[in-house]
From TrEMBL:
Residues 28-97 form the BTB domain. InterPro entries: BACK, BTB/POZ_dom, BTBD19, SKP1/BTB/POZ_sf. Pfam families: BACK, BTB. This is BTB domain containing 19. It comes from the Eukaryota. It comes from Pipistrellus kuhlii (Kuhl's pipistrelle). Gene3D superfamilies: 1.25.40.420, Potassium Channel Kv1.1, Chain A (3.30.710.10).
Amino acid sequence: MEPPGPVHGEAEPFSKALRSLVNNRLYSDVRFVVGQERQEVFAHRCLLACRCNFFQRLLGPEPGPGVPGPVVLSTVPAEAFLAVLEFLYTNSVKLHRHSVLEVLTAAVEYGLEDLRELCLEFAVKVLDVELVCEALQVAVTFGLGPLQERCIAFIEAHSQEALRTRGFLELSAPALLLLLRSDKLCVDEADLVLAARSWARVGAAVLDRPVVEVAAPVVRELRLALLAPAELSALEEQNRREPLIPVRRSWRRGNATLCEEEMRPGVPRAAAGGAPCPGSITAFWTCPSSD
């Protein structure tokens, strides 16, 4: 005789019924106000609490007397929050390219490991030039190593296009440092210097700080030794008008007198196959001693 065990009905009708309760005022006993748009979302305490420790702590064991006020979650966009609820109610979720990183962020913050893995898998599948820098920033912020590696590899293969995106300009300094330390960026070093300057300008405007101060954490990873004499002269002139790279002495044509600790060794950046990228070995210049 077979030992007694559970028997299961069809999963789809059960999932469909629970999905109908997502953001449904019927029988709801908790109300959220989410996102900058302050959208009202209805949910059910018992389901949230049993599915997610974050909500169990947030909502407490039972509501207080009277009509409870809304729970305000202003940092999570409404679309991402509804995706989280859909997963909690049905153990499945419909993800979209334009919002997957917001859902991933919520999954990490709420400790939903299964949802996080679903988002990571989806994000890798839809990764493109416009999304990759935003994905890299999320990966760096939350320490998502595999996603970080995939993003860097993608940018290495599409360097020129990625440097022109809004996501690149919004990278944090730690995320940008990861890129600049790569030996496989297929881009001319002069273009990389220009991209770093654009990045620093955006940061300076947001933080109300000088460009040179914002750029300080990342300029050491620029490989100025790869610049040709003409490119170095142009950089010298631009640096006079808008300081980006700290110097201790004036520059001379063809001879960067940038102090050695500010210089990055002139290692060529190579494409994924190992061959140097065009323009990445234009010239080698070494920083003279400061004596």
